[in-house]
Amino acid sequence: MQEDKDQELQETVGGENISETTESVNETSEKSPEITTEKTDSDATDDTVSIENEIASSEPAPEDEKGENDDDSVLNEIDESNAEDAEDQDNHHRHDIPILDYHAMSMENLVGELQRLIKNEKVQAIKKHVDGIKYEFDLKFQEFIEEKKEDFISNGGNEIDFRYNSVTKRQFNEVYSEYREKRNQYYKSLENSLKENLSNRLAIIEELKSLVNVEEDINTTYKHFKEVQEKWRNAGPIPRNNYNDVWRTYHHHIEIFYDFLHINRELRDLDFKHNLEEKIKLVERAEALEKEEDLNKAFRELQTLHKIWKEDVGPVDKEHREEIWERFSNATKVLHQRRQDYYKDLDKIHEQNLEKKKEIINSIKGISENIATSHRALQQQIKQIEELRDAFFKAGKVPQKVNEQTWAEFKEAVRSFNRNKNAYYKNLKKEQQTNLDKKRELLNLAISLKDSEDTDTATSEMKRIQSEWKKIGHVPRKYSDKIWKEFKEACNHYFDRLHASKNEAHKDEIENFEKKNECLERLKAFELTGKREADLATIKAFIEEWKTYGRVPFNKKNINQKFNKILDAIFKKLDVDRQESELLRYGNKIQHLANADNDRAIANERSFIRKKIEESKNEVRQLENNLQFFSNASEDNPLVQDVIKRVEKNKESLETWKAKLKKLNIMQHNLEKGENEAEETDPTEEE
């Protein structure tokens, strides 16, 4: 990910930020207190101090020191980073481990990433990663726990009594403790080795110093010098705090020795020539890095070149010393300038991200200031807040100087919404408790009426309290099912008694059912003779007979549907035309409306039919208008034929609806006259 590379580059080489190495040197080190106080060892301290004084008093300045005298920050950063890597050869792997966008991760994902790093990576290479994860986790957990505390207080709890057991926090602490333990074990085991290597290197420097004054053949001395160099190469890592001073001291005495070799210029010049050739190669490699697109890769390569320059390649003659170092330093500065330009662009991106986050914060504030007044709408707002939170975390990094402020504003906006949300639900709970009290009153009333013998009064009252129940809003969830069940049982108990008493009082309905059932069985057994008129007359006789049997018990009324299904099947076999079949079926509905004697149902049916009549008229009118567009087209045209068919079909439908309206009007007229049936009413009931 490019953003991962940007993060790694920024934290590795700095810009305005403090480099990783600088932080590790200046801070009270968690890594190894013993190592940071290494100089309390008396031998090491005395030697180092004497060496530093010796360098300060010498006239020629080493090449590395010249770079520092130029106050070039990038050279200091490279020195510090190489010092850190020199302490452990595996430490440089930290550059290869991407630093993810921890800000956008949930607490659970942060725990998972920390576990992965500890399991798969070297503990000394993940400090920056672990620090970033811990920082983001602590921020998110603080926000989370504050929300939980607000919920607790808003529900009537006392702040002093608040406790919250977070499984995620416990898991994080366990994993982080594992990291600290591994880290401490690593640096404890490393400490003695670093101390011993430091002592060895200081002894090697003393041995190197002694070569200048030895009285022996120059060739023998030169051979001894090469052996000292080999021992130096194999002396192992030393504490990072001592690295640069020790290396500068070593190179200082290397140069003194080469000056001493003026007695044997051939040996010295041969070495100078070889070293110059090697340094030219390093310079050319450094200059080529200007074209490397990946700044991370380029800087790591530059670090390696500086390390080789310092550790593996000796000095060159004074004639070329300044020139070759100038080339190498300039190549380094070119890359540094590229980095500075890059960070200018990166700062612009961070400013854009800041604007996005400000917009998100304002959106959250807007929702918080206009909190919904219904549960459904508030749930929608909660969803919007979650989406805005996700967008905030995914918006990318902002300038470091406003990072804390931006996070604080975001957190406060979310907390404000949560406070308003909690206030709403607190009021809602009060309202639901009031509703619960009202429903309990209705429940008690229903229970008192369920065995009443005064059916006229009780029925009216039971219907009233059922209607009243529907008007009352929600009650607390834990009571909702229970109180509804009790109310429903009381109402069902009463109406079951009422229906049972009606069944007793209307035995004729049961008789009607038995007669209809017998008629139904005969209709099932009926077989067509093949003579359409005779068969149709027989079917009409069945219908007339069915009509004479009147109402059946409420729970048996599905017998009418069974009768209609059999009729539909027979009509289909008799090839009864569509309109006739429609009117026969509609006659059944007319009979149903007449028996119900419900003015509202009749009015609704009339309104429905009139609407269908108007729709059919409009459709016919529209189709006839469409035909005018085909005035010059032949009647054989498929489009014309289709429109004509649709016109005829809608005209037939129009006539059918008019006939239905006529039957309905006749039925209502007869009802108003007190008659039980209309002369033209067909007894079949529509499904």
Automatic annotation (TrEMBL):
Comp. bias (Basic and acidic residues): 28-42
Coiled coil regions, renumbered to chain: 273-305, 606-633
Coiled coil as UniProt keyword: yes
Ranges of compositional bias, category Acidic residues: 61-73
Extent of Low complexity compositional bias: 16-27
Region (Disordered) location: 1-73
Keywords on record: Coiled coil
Name of the protein: DUF349 domain-containing protein
Protein's organism: Maribacter luteus
